Amino acid sequence: MADVTISSLSPLTPSTGLVLPVSNGSTTGSVTLSQVCGVMTSAQITTALGYTPLSTPSYTSYRYWRYVSLGPVKDHHPMLSRIILSTNIIDTTIFTQTTDNCNDIGTFPGNGTTYSYDFSTPTLIKSAKIYSTFGLGTRAANYAVQYSSDNTNWTTFFGGIMFASGCGIVTGTGGLL
């Protein structure tokens, strides 16, 4: 795919939002800031720019999944009351330390701590979430979500940063749309 250049910005309007004029060298068009920031899928954006979208990869569902806490990014892993793995339709709590709260009561997983879950049937996990119990500052750590067909041999499916700057449910970076 050719490089796309964003030129000057047009004024912000309530109906269109911020419009970004773009060009790939031979075609000129525009996309809104909301399109660039994730309201549209990448395939929709490439179509809007006049490109043929790439095919969506297919993924396999697995019975066993786990959340792995990796090294800290900011101080340590966010303090949490529970860990959630999601299909992006159904959220499943795979670990509960305590009731959801905003009183800094819970646990912050150390580097290498794993939380495994048996979904009983093959399931496709697309994102990881936590309930952050600390609302007075920023905490962040790397994490990975892994799958297994036998609950012994694990493969990393995706990873990212679990970042919390307040109390409540937060979704980690990484994952699938």
Summarize the structure.
The protein is mainly beta and 177 residues long. It has helices at residues 33-39, 42-48; strands spanning 5-6, 19-23, 28-32, 62-74, 80-86, 91-96, 114-123, 127-132, 139-148, 155-164, 168-171.
Give an overview of the whole structure.
It is a single chain. The protein has 2 domains: 44 residues, no CATH class; 110 residues, no CATH class. The strands form 3 sheets. A 4-stranded antiparallel sheet has the order 7-4-9-10, with no helix packed on it. With 177 residues, the chain is mainly beta. The chain is 8% helix and 44% strand. The protein contains 2 helices and 11 strands, in the order βββααββββββββ.
Helix count from the secondary structure assignment? 2
Averaging pLDDT over every residue, what do you get? 79
Radius of gyration: 20 Å
Helix content: under 10%
Which word captures the global form?
A: globular
Strand percentage lies at: 35-45%
| Side-by-side strand order of the widest sheet | 7-4-9-10
Derived structural class? mainly beta
| Quaternary organisation | single chain
Q: Please describe the biggest sheet, giving its number of strands, its sense, and whether it closes into a barrel.
A: 4 strands, antiparallel
H/E topology pattern: EEEHHEEEEEEEE
